[in-house]
Each structure stands twice: as C-alpha cells, then as structure tokens.
Amino acid sequence: MVQTQVIIIGAGPTGLMAACQLARLNINFIIIDSKPAPVAESRAMLVTARSMEIYRQMGLADTVLKEGQVIDSFSIFMNGREKATLKTTNAGQGLTDFPNLQAFEQFKNEDLLYTDLKMLGHDVLWRTSLVSFAQNEDGLQARLYDKTDPFRDFFVEADYLLGCDGASSTVRQQLGLDFIGGTYQNKFFVADVNLNWLQPTNKLIASLSRQSFCAFFPMYGNGSYRILGTLPQHFMATEEIDFDDLKPVIHSTAKIPFNIETLNWFSVYKLHHRCVDEFKVGHCFLLGDAAHIHSPAGGQGMNTGLQDAYNLTWKLAMVLNKAAAEPLLNTYHDERYPFAQWLLRFTDNIFGFMTGQQWYVYYFRRCFIPIFLKWLLAAPFFSRRAFKTLSQIGYSYRKSRLSINCSSQKLKFKAGDRCPHILIDHDGHQQSLLSLLTETKFYLLCVGDIRQHDFLPAHLQGYINVINLPHAACWHKAGVKGKLFILLRPDQYIGLVSDEMNTALLSGYFNNFK
Prior knowledge:
Elements: E1 2-3, E2 6-9, H1 13-24, E3 29-33, E4 46-47, H2 49-57, H3 61-67, E5 69-71, E6 73-78, E7 81-87, E8 101-103, H4 106-119, E9 124-126, E10 128-135, E11 140-146, E12 153-158, E13 160-163, H5 170-175, E14 180-197, E15 203-208, E16 213-218, E17 224-230, H6 243-254, E18 258-275, E19 280-281, E20 284-286, E21 292-293, H7 301-320, H8 330-355, H9 359-367, H10 369-377, H11 380-390, E22 404-406, E23 423-426, E24 429-432, E25 442-447, E26 464-469, H12 473-477, E27 484-488, E28 494-498, H13 503-510
Helix pairs in contact: 1-4, 1-7, 7-8
C-alpha cells in the first residue's frame, strides 16, 4: 500500500500545474497519466497575462516569452476583405507586465511544466490509470493500474484526490456527477500547417461567411499557423474527412490568397459546452476540463485550468499542514464555479455569433459589425476592457468569504481583486508590485510610514512575508490617501484591506480558514 497526501489524476497542463505548486509547498503527492508521455500536438494556443504572472512567480515566464509568438493584431475578414482590425501590441500596457497576446502551444506548456516538475525532484507515473477509488471519513483509497505490467494493480491511500483528467474524466464519472450542458451542432476542424501568404506574420485573422467560419492563429516559427473552423452542412454525415477535402472550404471561406505547404496535425471533432454543479465532493476535486469545457473562443480553456490549480493548491497545503481547517477547501468551488459559469456564457455568446448561420445573424454580422467594430476598436477604453477580460486579470473574488474590506478610503481596488498593477521604486529601479511576490505565500503590504510589525501572530509568521512600501504617487493614483495594509493571498489575490492592523484583526482574518 502506497501512502501520500494528494493523488493527481492527469498530467496535462492543469495536473502539472497542480503538481508543481504542491512540490513548491512541500506537499507529498503522486501524479499519474494513462499516456506514455506529454502530448506532441499543439492543441490549446494562447497563454493569458494572468497565467504569465503565475509563470513568472515560478521562474518560467522568460521561456514563454522567448519561445512563444506575440500576436500584434486581430482582424476580421469577410469575402477576402479586411473589415476591422484591432492592434493588440501592448494592449494591456499599464495593466500588467505582460501586455501582449501570447501564443504558446499546449505541448510547450506541458513540456515547460514537466521540466519544472522534474527539477523539483518529482516525476509523473506514465502509463498508469485510475481504476476506482473509495472515500472515507479521513481520506480515500484509490486503485491504480500500471499499463507497463498487465498484472500490476496497486493501491494508494491519500488525503485528497484531484481529477485533472480531461473532458472524459474517470474521476467525474465515478463521482456520479452530471456534466450539464450541450454539444454544438457544427463539426469543427483544427489543423497545424506551414502557410505561405502575404499577410503579416503576427496577425490573427478570423474569416466569416454565411456557411462557415475559419481563423488563422500565428504560431512560433516562420509560416507556422493554426487553422480552425466549422465544417459546412454537407460534411455532417461524413465519418472520415481528409484534410485535402477541406482545403476548398478554407479557401472559399477566407478568400485570401495562400498556399498550405505542410500539414503537421489535423483533427475533426465536436465541441461541447458543459460544467459540473460541484467542483468538490468529499475529498475529491475536479479541475480544468474535468469540471468545465467550452468553445475555444478567446483562448480561455487551458488558462482556466491553470487558474483552478493555482486557486486550490495553496488551500490544500494549509489544510494538510494544519494551518487551516477543512472548510477552507469549500472556497475552491465557491470561487471557481462562478467563473466557470461566466466563462461558458461568454464563450458561447462569442462562438454563437461568429458561427451562427441564421439569416438575421449573418445579416447583422455582414452589414453592421464592420461599422460597429471600426468605431469600437478605435476606443482605448474598449481595448483595455477587452484585454482585462480575455487575459483573466480582471476577474475578482469580491463575493468570496475570504475577501474582507476594512478600509474607509476610496480605493480603486477591493478585497477579492487580483493584486493591483502598481509600479514602485525597488532596489533603485521601477518594477511592478506583482513582480515582488516571488513565493507562494501570504504577503502583507504595509503602505506608508509603518515601523512596527508586532501585529504578526507567532503561529502565522512562517506563512506571511511583510513588505514595507512608501506612500508614493503610484498609491495616491490608486486612491490610497493614508496608511493602508493589504494582505495578499498566495495566489496573488487580495484577501484583506484595512486602514489599521493589529494581531486581533490578522488572527480574525485567518479564522475564516477554520
């Protein structure tokens, strides 16, 4: 019998992120996957600014910047003509240290995280699958199957189990949870190709027609593109579809001169939009595609799984280290389920509009959207708002019971928000506040002339880093007029904002974890 604290089922980006975080938090775990190795296909494409901020804390962001592809514009084409363009270069300037749309394919994310995991002294049990598990009052026992030896089943006892095993999740099925939602009527295709055309290298292009839709995503490497789109109705009954059969469809939809020189990967599939009602059942959790799946509109899927893992793992560590009680883990569902529900609505609305074949949808798309977008995309407030939404830096946990406001100042941020992007003078040069958060720990920011720190309870001193920050102009712009204390959670969201700080207030906040 193997014993550990956490079992992670699935070594995709979500499972690997969970493993890397638990390794940093000194939690014992095993991570398994039925595959023989990480995927080789590109699959998911975009890495959001919020994910990049996490990667920076892990020391991985520079690799993404070096090996990824910046997308500097997004254009909508109809009948081969460019109808509207949004310049995305530095679209998030002043909002984050990662202001660009960044293409970094899923297999690269998996390789990045897997390499990091091995550097931390851990590895994945490949060719190993979950057979069954049974929960009890203290934890669970899982039966695993090692495919390298057809006669080897083994059992693992653990405190918790994380289901990161994708849309067909065995964990979800064995928990008996319904995957509520539906399936889009259209079939879709995705192809990674080497493309020869006259369009700029870093431009993302969406081509719309009455019958179909296709988009061209630039990837790292000269002429490397991801093409995805919908199939016309006459393909619906066709089981085996060859990519050569789709080339005329792509050309007729885009009506842009191009030549596909090499096909690297191709797949046809159905898209679903589904979500479970419970992200936590007993000692089991669902993360990523095991909990929610949706259309690829906005490039949110992989990033949402990374955020799920980032939200949950620090809470698991606190409970396992007896610094918090079991109820803290309920906030994983409370915080991530509303986001998943919003994301399903958001991506469904975008995808429905882009692919809808009803005459009125197409008429509106063809006649009004180009005019509307030309006006809207020229407005700075819209591009900033769009960036905050798509990059996931604008999402907040303000309604969480872990978010407490005790300040009378008219601040431009509140408890539950991501740590504000504020540039401060540090070690002789300017850098963002977020860049100082180099550990997965709580940070207490003391803004103003604060010299005493005797408010830290002895039992919390190992969990909280204190940073003193002068009351500079950057804080004044954010609404800070006097002394301010900001307690940041390990996932870089604000837990507590207060004009004063003392032992009772700080201990009282951590009592929310009991």
